[in-house]
Specification:
Helix 3 packs across helix 4. Strands 1-2 form a two-stranded antiparallel sheet. It is mainly α and about 170 residues long. The termini are far apart. It is about 45% helix and about 0% strand.
């Protein structure tokens, strides 16, 4: 038999074979695996869904998963089945199953709503950074000389006030 190719419907992989499968088959396999661990049967055989006694169990889980997928999303079903709440649930026909899946569906919907609310709104008038940094370093002095904003040499007392650059004082003396 040919392996199933990955498509929009079959984007999950069987854990036992690695072949691509639908979401319902993926969830049904997880539930059969949990059931086998609970019954202490051991690991499931390769392509267990074709072998007794697992073929009927797999079919029942597959039908239940397909029924659930008519009302809930794939993401909610997969998250719910892999959640800690499903730890002691071994069938998709369990009475608490739908309540847990509904909770995960609502959780996913609220996350989508938050994502749409947090859209980035562009700022119409962005402030630009000021180009003068008020520090007197060598480059700023050169720019001042080029722009004709050179300090008057007569105003400098040469006494060395607090704002003077130490290099400038050494050069003056």
């Amino acid at each position: 038999m040919k392996k199933r190719k990955r498509s929009e419907k079959s984007r999950y992989k069987h854990e036992s074979t690695g072949d691509h499968c639908t979401c319902a088959a993926y969830v049904a396999e997880i539930m059969c695996k949990k059931n086998a661990e609970n019954k202490n049967v051991g690991s499931l055989p390769h392509k267990f869904w074709n072998k007794k006694p697992w073929n009927w169990t797999f079919k029942k889980q597959l039908w239940a998963a397909q029924k659930i997928l008519k009302t809930y999303s794939e993401q909610a079903l997969v998250k719910a089945v892999n959640s800690p709440e499903f730890k002691r649930i071994f069938s998709l026909n369990h009475p608490n199953c739908l309540g847990i899946i509904r909770r995960y569906e609502l959780l996913l919907d609220s996350q989508k709503d938050r994502a749409t609310e947090q859209e980035v709104k562009p700022i119409k008038e962005a402030k630009t950074r000021s180009k003068s940094f008020k520090k007197k370093n060598t480059l700023s002095k050169l720019r001042q000389i080029e722009n004709g904003k050179k300090k008057e040499e007569g105003s400098d007392s040469g006494g060395g006030s607090q704002g003077d650059d130490p290099k400038q004082i050494r050069e003056d003396n």
